[in-house]
Design a protein that fits this description.
This protein is an alpha/beta fold. Helices cover about 25% and strands about 25% of the residues. It folds into two domains: about 180 residues, FAD/NAD(P)-binding domain, CATH 3.50.50.60; about 120 residues, FAD/NAD(P)-binding domain. Strands 1, 2, 5, 6, 7, 8 and 19 form a seven-stranded mixed beta sheet that branches. Strands 10-17-11-12-13 form a five-stranded parallel beta sheet. Helix 5 runs parallel beside helix 6. The chain binds NADPH dihydro-nicotinamide-adenine-dinucleotide phosphate (NDP). The site of NADPH dihydro-nicotinamide-adenine-dinucleotide phosphate (NDP) has 15 residues, from helix 5.
Length: about 325
């Protein structure tokens, strides 16, 4: 078994992880970054990124993450592929074990494992990913100006995404499996008042279709009732908004989580319930979930680590 030692282990390689790596490496903490299952994080499944400051002509999700990675490596961050599967937070230095049998002892840990959008579980979602299917209206909505799109979900996120898209797309269909919206009243009212949003209640998606790009969704209304009927809904974009799941499996038993499963931090700091363990990015953010806010919290976590080590806590 191989063993490594570091002052700071960063778990996750989205904007939060790489920004934390940049700051901790420039502070000479020689961080180790374990990239996790999706090196580069959620941005690598989007196409263009036009809302990250510093890229006036836009960039790609993978391009942005490659840039962040290289910038952190330039200052000596040790970035490794692999997944941390087990932590021991019971004493310092902490230990982490990876899926490749590596043991890392670390004076501090930054958890930046992100969150994953929930998907319906249809094979077609992967088939049309980036070709019409998206889980982020703020990221991809711009590409559907003047087009027809569908949003799946009945919560606040779905309503927010539908409202956002209604300012860009010509028509938005909100596909809701029940006969009511779960979203807050104010969001429901806004959705209902928007002329180009049509809410399709009691409707489930069974598949997607299209030659190269998405051309529509197969829907079924009133499943299992005498009124059951199937519909093909022509849309250019299909947005999932059925919730996010913070990626906490490897540490959920020891790190305090809120009722929705997000890591609780000592706002405005990034400290968790275990001194020396910090959290940054979407794993601790149910609200903003943007690349730029994740990067900002990665910076905050790195500064918190520096202060924690300087205080000899
Ligand atoms: P929620 O869990 O609140 O809602 C998920 C929605 O997706 C529900 O309508 C649910 O349907 C639907 N859904 C889940 N699985 C499926 C499926 N397999 N097929 C079809 N539909 C499905 O998640 P949100 O992301 O909307 O919100 C998370 C939290 O963040 C909430 O507390 C919310 O209030 C908050 N939030 C607040 C905002 C604000 O205040 N501006 C903005 C965004 C989020 P069903 O109702 O049938 O279970």
């Amino acid at each position: 078994m191989t063993a490594l030692t570091t002052k700071c282990l960063i778990v996750g390689s989205g904007p939060a992880g790489y920004t934390a790596a940049l700051y901790t490496s420039r502070a000479n903490l020689k961080p180790i970054v374990m990239e996790g299952l999706t090196p580069g994080g959620q941005l690598t499944i989007t196409t263009e990124v036009e809302n990250f400051p510093g890229y006036p002509d836009g960039t790609t999700g993978t391009g942005l993450m490659d840039d962040m990675r290289r910038q952190a490596e330039r200052f000596g961050a040790d970035i490794r592929s692999g997944l941390v599967t087990k932590f021991d937070f019971s004493k310092r230095p902490f230990t982490a074990e990876t899926d490749s049998g590596l043991t890392i002892t670390a004076d501090t840990i930054i958890l930046a494992t992100g969150a994953s959008a929930r998907f319906l579980g249809l094979d077609d979602e992967q088939k049309y990913m980036g070709l019409g299917v998206s889980a982020c209206a703020t990221c991809d909505g711009f590409f559907y100006r003047g087009k027809k799109v569908a949003v799946v979900g009945g919560g606040d996120t779905a309503c927010e995404e539908a409202l956002y898209l209604s300012n860009l797309a010509s028509q938005v269909y909100l596909i809701v499996r029940k006969n009511y919206l779960r979203a807050s009243k104010v969001m429901q009212d806004r959705v209902m008042a928007r002329q180009n949003i049509e809410v399709l209640f009691n409707t489930n998606t069974t598949g997607l279709y299209g030659e190269e790009f998405l051309e529509g969704a197969h829907l079924v209304e009133f499943v299992g009732t005498p009124q059951e009927r199937t519909i093909d809904l022509p849309v250019d974009g299909f947005f999932l908004a059925i919730g996010h799941k913070p990626n906490t499996e490897a540490f959920a038993s020891e790190i305090e989580l809120d009722k929705d499963g997000y890591v609780v931090t000592d706002h405005p700091h990034t400290a968790t319930n275990i001194p020396g363990v910090f959290a940054a990015g979407d794993v601790a953010d149910p609200y903003y979930r943007q690349a730029i806010t994740a990067a900002g919290s990665g910076c905050r976590a790195a500064l918190d680590v520096e202060r924690f080590l300087a205080e000899g806590a």
